[in-house]
Design brief:
By secondary structure, this protein is an alpha+beta fold. It has one domain: Alpha-Beta Plaits (2-Layer Sandwich), CATH 3.30.70. The chain is 34% helix and 29% strand. The protein contains three helices and six strands. The protein has a four-stranded antiparallel beta sheet. A hairpin with a 2-residue loop joins strand 2 and strand 3. Its cofactor is Mg(2+).
């Protein structure tokens, strides 16, 4: 399962830029990676883990702006078409999980 966080935050004042930077840093600290400007994603092994991350991020939402959360399955994520210019690129793969015997 993949969790997407999409946001549109104001950056018109010094305080707003600080809130933006703090929010972005939190996403990176939680293991999210930037897919596009203001679109971050993270692989989650289950819906429960995804819900946990949503809760953690929700606790620290910036005071202004819009933030959206969206979870998609691996299958849905795999159907994504990615282009750099007119050249098609491979979709990101889920990270390998360690197996314990």
């Amino acid at each position: 399962m993949w969790l997407f966080i999409m946001f549109d935050l104001p950056v018109d004042t010094r305080k707003a830029r600080k809130n933006y930077a703090k929010f972005r840093k939190q996403l990176l600290d939680e293991g999210f990676q930037m897919m596009q400007y203001s679109v971050y994603s993270r692989y989650c092994v289950s819906e429960e883990v995804s819900t946990k991350f949503v809760g953690q991020i929700q606790k620290n939402l910036p005071p202004a702006g819009q933030v959206r959360f969206m979870a998609v399955t691996d299958r849905q994520f795999g159907k994504m078409k990615v282009f750099y210019g007119k050249k098609r690129a491979e979709t990101e793969q889920a990270p390998q999980q360690m197996q314990l015997f």
